[in-house]
Amino acid sequence: MKSIENLKQTLIGRFGDQVITLAHGSGGKAMQQLIDEVILPFFGKPSDSPLEDQARLPLPQSGRLCMTTDSYVVTPIRFPGSSIGHLAINGTVNDLAVSGAQPLYLSCGLIIEEGLAFAELIEILADMAVAAQAADVQIVTGDTKVVDRGSCDKLFINTAGVGVLAVGMDSGITHIQTGDKVLINGDIGDHGVAILAARGELALETTIESDCAALTTLIQLLLAEGIPVHAMRDVTRGGLATVLNEYAQGAGVGILIDEGQIPIKQEVRGVCEVLGLDPLYLANEGKVALVVPADFAEQALQLMRSHPSGINAAMVAEVVDDHRGRVVMQSDFGGKRVVDMLVGEQLPRIC
């Protein structure tokens, strides 16, 4: 099979002057051509047998199946460092990975607006193929719908994922204990700022790119080395503040953030200061907040920093007995403030 980049260029050369029409969602020849000649070349077939309306997959000999689903409606569909295609793969992979599961299979549902250029669709499909290859998952089934102009914004994607949870893996909020440490694998807020800049509404100039990435190998590294992870969540909409509040409320504990330890690029901090945004609430697409016992925190931190996705990992908070159910931040100036759940949405349609 040709490389993904070569395939992309070949298909753009063939279909680049065409646009999606309602016929491509009608179930007829145009739709069959779209699937057979544009979509399937990127994702392949799980077997040599004819396509069916479902994928038939082997079950693991041990462990449990883990399943998730998510929909992606980000605007614009391409932004610095990433695209809706990367998001659709990595976001669903990460929802599986933070359970401790090994992601295996994904579905792909495309809702395409009439008039979308074939070239744009091909670019996004190539991004999905690249991301799936990097995350070592296979897209095994899918669906395509075409809607009237104005019924969606170019392209919406739904992906469902299936993975295998190893025997004995049982992390979760209820395991969080007083004294535990909270680690994050790098700088926060990059994705939110990248989307804001891409929309061009504020004439904002920045070099920040989305942090969109799969977290599987980072998480599996920690588990393979015997780190007893009590809980983990990928830090997406609502940012780090939302995840920490979910931990505090779900476990009935207090969480104390050390402001000086939060990794954040100076450029992201500057954008937030200019626009009046709080980086703790900005979206991320390649970050995980892990809760580990204090005795394992330093070892976990060093392992994370040895991985490309964890070079700037930091210990950002501690689980405490005080202010149960609430998150409080110790500022650089010695004061404290409550970090509540996000009210409303700082930036809509960010994933």
How are the secondary structure elements laid out?
Layout: H1 4-15, H2 29-43, E1 64-72, E2 78-79, E3 82-83, H3 84-97, E4 102-113, H4 118-135, E5 138-147, E6 155-165, E7 181-184, H5 190-199, H6 216-224, E8 231-234, H7 239-251, E9 254-258, H8 266-275, E10 288-292, H9 294-305, E11 314-320, E12 327-330, E13 336-338
Describe the structure.
The chain has 2 domains: 4-165, PurM-like, N-terminal domain (60s Ribosomal Protein L30, Chain: A, 2-Layer Sandwich); 173-338, Phosphoribosyl-aminoimidazole Synthetase, Chain A, domain 2, CATH 3.90.650.10. It is globular and about 65 Å long. It is α+β, with helices and mostly antiparallel strands. The chain has helices spanning 4-15, 29-43, 84-97, 118-135, 190-199, 216-224, 239-251, 266-275, 294-305, and strands at residues 64-72, 78-79, 82-83, 102-113, 138-147, 155-165, 181-184, 231-234, 254-258, 288-292, 314-320, 327-330, 336-338. It starts with a helix and ends in a 13-residue tail after the last strand. It has 9 helices and 13 strands. Helix 3 (84-97) runs parallel beside helix 4. Residues 178-329 form the PurM-like C-terminal domain.
